[in-house]
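Quick one - first record:
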Amino acid sequence: MRGLFNKILPAVQATVTRASEAESIVKELFGLAGIEFGGTKPGDITVHDARFYERVLRDASVGFGEAYMEGWWETDALDTTIDKIMRANLKQKLTGSWRMRALTVKAVMMNLQAKTRSGASVEAHYDIGNDLYTRMLDERMVYTCGYWKNAKTLTEAQEAKLDLVCRKAGLKPGMRVLDLGCGWGGLASWAAEKYGCSVLGVTLSKDQVSLGNELWGAKGKKLDVELRLCDYRDVQGKFDRVLSVGMMEHVGPKNHRTMMETIDRCMVDDGVAVVHTIANNRSLRHGTPWIEKYIFPNAVAPSLAQIGRALEGLFVLEDLHNIGPDYDPTLMAWWDNFDRTYGEISNKYDRRFYLMWKFYLLAAAGASRSRDGQLYQVVLTKTGRVQPDHARAI
């Protein structure tokens, strides 16, 4: 018995030492961001399971997010916690182990957003239930950054954004408009209803097409809008204007050029394109591992350099507008809506989903607040066209 105890004791002592070291390291790192464990400041962390520390060191963003989903830790202001983490650049200090390297290898070796893969990636996020999105979003079902310059509510911010895009594009009655990555058709409906355009929207989400056509088609507002289940690469025809709001962050670095070539092929020579996309401050091959795993599979926002390379030789960049800070209030409004109405759908989306969705929305708000990500709107024309006087419609 004594011999068995002598064999077990070193392993137990090593485990205790390792756990203590992990706790010390994590507390020191988070201290650099002004985050205390057991503190009372907004964004401080309370740990309920001591395994949290080793998990964060081992799995970085995946471990941090999963531990939150499992109730191992909490905070009174998750958006503030993430804001502080980003400002202290902790994500560069906590890179994890094999997960990040595995994602990088996959991104280099494979086209993660190829046609054969894109449908499943879209379905994993956008087809989880319209009952969730109708409660979280505004009346037009707009799931992209609002424009809060003169807005006080989510509805006002989204309508201001839709109109900003339409004015930058110079929409006029009778124009034929292509909406790449149309979502539930919020922008398409605005362009048809307010500007008298005929709009074709394409998406790979079955739920979006079904509800969008119901809202804006013969059963709804009877607008000149058609939402079609179609890969953007397969669109045929010519359009006076091409709009893309919230799709470029999903197409992946290997397909940025293909997206721009699609716009070029589908747009008339004197047309105008407006592309609205979340953007990274650095050129990346893949997204954050936790976001990749739980929220947006295979999505990675482009950098300004990647956008520039994608449009080189095809388009003139008429205007570049960064409304990145507006994502913070947009995400907070979505969180408020989701949190307020969650009880109505809790039978379908369990507590773990609730915490996952909370982590997603509030972490994204904190990242936006710290300027870790941007939101670019670019106005594009073909070489030789007279510069449109409406390109800057701020």
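second record:
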Amino acid sequence: MAVKEGNLEAPTRHSLDWRNPDFYNEESLYRELERVYDHCHGCRRCVSLCQAFPTLFDLVDESETMEVDGVKKADYWKVVDHCYLCDLCFMTKCPYTPPHEWNLDFPHLMLRAKAVKFKQGEVKLRDKILTSTDSVGSLAGIPVVAGIVNAANKAKPTRKILEAVLGVHADARLPEYHSKTMRSHLSANIGAMKKGEPGETTKGRVVLFTTCYGNRNEPVIGEDLAAVFEHNGIPVTLAEKEQCCGMPKLELGDIESVEKAKNANIPVLAKLVDEGWDIVSPIPSCTLMFKQELPLIFPDDPQVKKVSEAIFDPFEYLMLRHKEGKLNTEFKTPLGKVAYHAACHQRVQNVGSKTRELLSLIPDTAVEAIERCSGHDGTYAVKKEFHESAMKIVRPVVSRVKNAKADHYGSDCPMAGHHIEHGMADGSKTQHPMSLLRKAYGI
């Protein structure tokens, strides 16, 4: 019986079988890597997405057999190290995802490989530090320390030392830390129980999950979000407490730490859902973590499912309100031309281009959407061995922004926005779409 060429059906995602002892079996892993690499090598549709696939194809093409069996098993890890689990190959390119009989889930296979590597202790100290966002943020956010850290991160001598000692590239842009956090800015909202006007699909009041990056590194996004939502009659509250969503640890392969973060966050958020709140998160990766990743890792946890069904991308939420006739469309300031980068972790949420749709409602505003990876991924772009690849990946995005001659540019992912800004190298500044929306409202 011939194998059919590709799916005619939507992809189906299987849950991650990480509690199965075979999940961490290296011999079994190598067999699956060889099987999947062989299919990917014969297909090559994903060559433009990231550096993982060009690395794989070069390894095969340069081997003696010019097939996967000619690649050394030790070199399989070069492909794994370039994958940052954006999920775009599974969601947008691969024709062999389930229910196809080949059953390919490249990102989850890469996650399995990272988990095996982590379990074996083959993880750099740098990577453990970079993914410990709550701990690093708490220390770097101390008022005096924040100024020292920010100054050191911009000083070339310090950066050269950091590159030599930890492997953080001296030219990579590092995020700034703020002692005045998003949660402190919005502290009056904690526990606020204001009523909202419900719609058919929205409850009309939201919990803002601030995220570790939004809280410590870019609190202005949360301030702008709260201002925009409340301008639309949507009360905003904060959870009494929260931790990192777990995405950085997931990308490291540290699934047990992901479980700890889940155990801290989910009961708090689920209680708020029971009290009649929806949830929004200003960082696409964090929204994706609750919406899709945690349900795949913990498929039997009803509270995880409850939270996943109640969390929204902010622009997704506002466009749902617009569909219900409840969005304020009295904009006061046109934005001109906006070059908008659609973040990968927002695209794979399968909600459509809601940011572009909303910004396009603003009079005298033209939005050019750029659906291409920026290559940042939170930590990938700052690592010494990957920074050059990250700058290569962002180059086409930078070209699109420059060619657009836009009045504003930015991304739903603030880290991607700053990476594009870094590539622009012309003194221009990225602006988050939520900040642009606040500007358009004149609030």
